[in-house]
Amino acid sequence: MNLVGPTVHIVDDDQSFRTAVGRLLEASGYRVAAYESGEELLARLPSGHGCILLDLQMPGLSGLELQARLADMAPFLPIVFLTGRGNISITVQAMKAGAYDFLEKPASSTAVLEAVKRALQLCETRRLEQDRVQALHTLVARLTPRESQVFRLIVRGKRNKQIAYELSTSERTVKAHRHNVMEKLGARSLAEAVSMAERLGLLEKTA
Amino acid sequence: MIAWFQARPGKIRASPSCRNASALICILLIAIFAPTDIGSAEVAGPVPRVLILYPYDERIPATNIVGEATRTRLLEATAGKIELFSEFLDLSRFPEMRHVERMARYLAEKYIDRRPDLIIALGEESTRFIVRNRNAIAPDAKIVFGGFGSATAEELRLPDDVVGALTEFEIRKTAEMAIGLQPNARRLVVIAGSAEFDKAWIAAAQEDLTGLPRNVETTYLTGLSIDEFAEHVAALPPDTIVIVLTVLSDRSGRNFVPRNSLQKIASAANAPVYGPYSTYLGHGVVGGNAATFESTGAAVASLAIDALAGKAITDVTVPQSYMADARQLRRWGLSEADLPPGTVVSFNERSLWEEYWKEIIAISVFVAAQSLVIVSLAFERRRRAAAEFQARRRLLEVIHLNQSATAGALSASIAHELNQPLGAIRINAETAAVMLESKEPDLKLIRQILADIRDDDQRAGDIIAQMRGLLKKRSEIDWQEFDLKDVIQSAIHILRPEAERRNVVVSSMGPPQGLPVRADRVHVQQVILNLATNAMDAMLHASGAERNLVFQTTLAGTNGKVEVSISDTGCGIPNDKLSSIFDAFYTTKPAGTGLGLSIARVIIEIYGGKIWADNRPEGGAVFRFVLPLAQRG
Question: Residue B133: is its pLDDT beyond 50?
Fold first, then answer.
């Protein structure tokens, strides 16, 4: 993990701007990948962590469209939009779609560097979070189907008796499953188990 | 100084120099005295030779006028079938006998092979010369003379076959003319100078004037200086008659051309002045009785023609005439009605009016009306030119307003485009600054950065220049020849950011060769921008998936025109509006002025083109305009 370090992906149709920003970021120690268009970015879909500096107005695939595609394909890469001017409606759209930051051209190098730094931090956080979730998924995968059922009911605050009733089994059996669940997940308290379930998105599903 | 025919007054009657005599008088006199039978005379046999002898040199106007009149008549009457020779004896400058003999020998030698058939001798001296030397020069020639009177002719004892046109001076006729004009005059003053000729004149006049009415007291004034003459006549009462004969020289010995001395006296005189020479006319005399040099020449020629034709000829007298100067008549308050019958009145502006008043009025009215028309037309033309100038200035102002509106509509995208190089410049500069902070700056990279900064600065400058072209205000059309394709490319360049923002794909196609047109480049670009922004607006709400803006140029036929079409994939134009969209204030856009297309039409029509709109069968509208191609050559 993180073998290649963070990469800043610059998508701008203006070559000179692309070069200038790339040079700035490289001078600041970042790895840089530049793309002339949204299509090119999608074709060479970035792996690893990093962030995307995206020009809002480009011929072909527009910044907003690219944002929508990336949300599915590279959800961890925060997008910093670069705009030629404040266009409120587009900005709001981009924010709603999860844009991390906005830079107005001409932006100072400090602003660019700060935005990139924060975006990369976010990326790191997201990656850590994702790692954790991934680890949880692994743990949850180790539960038997019965234990999994019991886990989903525990985190919803059901008592052993209620669970036994729902699963048409004895309270004693439930107690044993519960113990196994807590053991396998490494949860030391009910609260910790609930937190894990929450992070895995199990709570939103109605039973 | 002898500036005229050497002649004794009363005997040889000639007149002073006529060099400056009015051409009008000459023509009138010729017309009056021209013998009418010359044309009928015929000269038989081979082409006759005629030698004209001038007594003096070629500068002397008096003999020249007579000689020229003679030549003209001779040539007319013989239809040019005559050989004319002229010899200037120069006897005033070389009066010596030796010269006379030399001339005789010379002429005898000269004409040895071409003996003249007839010799015309002008003046007394020529006549004397040829009579004496005729055997040596032209033994068989007939001799005709002119320029002196019968008294001189008698004195010369001319042989019978020497015949001439005699010029008689009758000073009495001049005096009678004066008395007729001034019936109340009591005094007659006759003036002559101190030269021999002048004195002889006085004597002749005294003889001639004896029979005048008794109540006119005649005084002869001579032996004075020119200034004394002038002084004297200035003191005379107005009812005096002054006759100036000649003043060739005055008491002090000063020599004059008689006409000039006459002029001096006449201008000072307090009474009307008369004189016996036609050349005096126009120089201050009221009038007089005289023979003109032209009529002398004509009479001499007439005799010569008859002689050549073999007819018997005898002496004739050159007709004399009464002449008067209308201005002098008016000056002295004399009546034209009192002139002798047949008097030729010169310088008479009034008679022109009297004779032609109807025509003059008609012509004047016509000229005045015409002038009025011309003036009013010129005025109208100026007014129209001013109005046209005003109209054109307004039009250019409106065009400029529209231009500004177009620029305003595009300003957002232009600002965006400007921000690209500005953003790059800023980041590049700051990166370079950071790099320079490091211990071992990558100078190669920094150099590259500076080069990029320079390029971006150039780019920003170009964008601004383009914008400035778009906003430039014109008070006059800046005619220039340019390639229409360049203008389309530049318009596309301006529009591209906006098109990208709106997801419009811009493309252009056309023939490979240049399309030169003559117009104001900014205006044509404006039309293209107007049509293109309209097209992009039309595509804003169109449902179609593709938004295409296509510029196409085609050579329209062979008549040297280029057609530009701008098509979109928008919602098209309602068919019933296709013709009215170019009218002013037609608009479908909430913020539109409705002037864009009408201004586009005005601009295209200024440059001799045409603009129209259509719907494309596959959807969307197409705007087309044609412009004449500039003539190459």
Answer: yes
